[in-house]
Design goal:
The protein has 1 helix and 16 strands. Mean pLDDT is 74; it is low at 1-49, 143-167 and 169-174. The protein is mainly β. The strands form 2 sheets. Strands 3, 4, 5, 6, 7, 8, 9, 10, 11, 12, 13, 14, 15 and 16 form a 14-stranded mixed beta sheet that branches. The chain starts with a helix and ends in a 7-residue tail after the last strand. It folds into 2 domains: 3-148 and 255-274, no CATH class; 165-227.
Length: 281
């Protein structure tokens, strides 16, 4: 597999996500021509449309996936590592080593390295090919950096040791003969995660018998911990009996201002101008 294929696909993903106003949850997944998913998402900024200013940091994000089969066998996927940087101006840098699926070779023991630099103030994104020293540039409409916000958080007890409170519970009224899933969300209070204060919530979804051909209820649980200071999620867990356990956490969090050179294309890189593709709405 050639690295230029991955970078080309990633460039398209960024341009499409930027044009459609995507967010971290709507990043495009890199897929090879053969259909292999390379397990990376790319966003116009690291955590939403608007740049987050005044909250510099650097951190390493670790994602783990463990699946348990019906006979009790555990399948543990290799941990995914992503390095994040953000300066006070809202510029971001994401460094990924793409984990390749079994049977797909990149010519070495590790997958290709993809680095994304986003400058929402200047309106430009760069995708750096660290092997060939080429930077693919995608220009976007410059946007004044504004202080980012996090989604509204449910109320919680001032005492983090208190029992969780159910803050929302809703059961959909079916419009056919099939019963709808039951969704409930509860606050988990606050706790310190990697030396930052985080506020947590847990969402439980119960799929009733027959909803998807299941003969027993299926329960999925998602837990999210968000830092108001960093304006981002620092820990998320998802448990689904169909796919297993997914855990994503930020580690080695530093609140210091990153080196300014991290948000610049190295002088020995060739810059290739790339036009964003048109997006059909």
């Amino acid at each position: 597999m050639k690295i230029f294929i991955i970078l080309s696909l990633a460039t398209t993903a960024i341009a499409q996500t930027t044009s459609s106003g995507g967010s971290v949850g709507g990043g495009a997944v890199i897929v090879t021509p053969s259909g292999a998913r390379l397990g990376a998402t790319l966003e116009p900024t690291m955590h939403g449309q608007a740049a987050v200013t005044g909250a510099p940091y650097s951190a390493i994000e670790i994602t783990e996936h463990v699946q348990t089969l019906a006979d009790g066998t555990h399948i543990t996927q290799p941990a995914q590592k992503v390095v994040y940087y953000r300066d006070s101006q809202g510029r971001t840098r994401i460094e990924r080593t793409v984990a390749l699926p079994p049977g797909v070779s990149a010519g070495s023991n590790t997958g290709p390295s993809v680095t994304e630099i986003a400058d929402p103030v200047a309106g430009v994104h760069y995708l750096l090919d660290t092997r060939d020293h080429k930077a693919r540039k995608v220009s976007t409409a410059p946007t004044a950096a504004i202080a980012g916000t996090v989604p509204p958080r449910p109320p919680y007890s001032a005492n983090p040791q208190s029992k969780p409170q159910i803050v929302r519970q809703s059961t959909f009224v079916p419009n056919d003969q099939r019963q709808r899933p039951e969704i409930s969300t509860e606050s988990l209070g606050t706790q310190m995660i990697e030396s930052v204060t985080a506020e947590g919530s847990r969402t439980t979804v119960i799929y009733p018998v027959g909803f998807m051909g299941n003969d027993r209820p299926i329960t999925t649980v998602s837990e999210t911990w968000t830092s108001p200071d960093l304006k981002m999620t620092v820990l998320s867990k998802n448990s689904d009996p169909r796919s297993g356990e997914h855990t994503t956490r930020l580690t080695n969090i530093s609140r210091a201002e990153p080196d300014p050179t991290l948000f610049q294309v190295p002088s020995d890189y060739e810059i290739i101008e790339t036009q964003p593709p048109s997006v059909v709405r």
